[in-house]
Design brief:
This protein is of the alpha+beta class and about 210 residues long. It is built from six helices and eleven strands.
Length: about 210
Amino acid sequence: IPLPPLEEQRRIVARIEELMERIREARHLRQKAREDTERLWQATLADVFPRPGTALPPGWRWVKLGEVAKIYSGSPAPQNSEYFRDGHQPFVRVSDLSSADNNQISRTKDYLNDKAKSLRLKKAPKGTIVFPKSGAAILTNARAILEVDAFIVSHLAAIEVDGSLADRLWVFRWLQTVDMGQQIENPSYPSLRLSKIKQLVLPLPSLEEQRRIV
């Protein structure tokens, strides 16, 4: 190791500690800003979406999520690398949600090739909303909208909105008010029952009003 005189070592170390303190403060302020932003965002959403049991504006109604959307899970990920070699079909994993740009998934880490056709994997169309349905990732409340047709892993749930009944962005923004951690039945093995998710109720104005508010 490089070794200056003790006095110089202490001078350099003191400078490093001073800089590290600034870095710690910057990290603290950044975290506080994130928390403040999240609180403001949740307050904004709470102003838009009435809570179940409260009165609705004229022309609005309560519906179950399963009435306006098809809800399903993905397929187990292929274990053999031969299905991914030179692939061109997006395969969405839970980790892709954390790297989604503005809650939109247009690129994925993994891509399947034509050999995967024999596996009959579940494919979700562009515009589908995806979120974690098993594991600790549920607690992150991560959600994203597919910007491309894509295969999805079994650890993800998909919400395919019926566009004649609801606007997908309306459903997506409403979903951001739902704490999926509250829907977990067995904390020792975090998972969501899709039959229960289908029963979640959301407020539904006319399509025109949904789009205006969104």
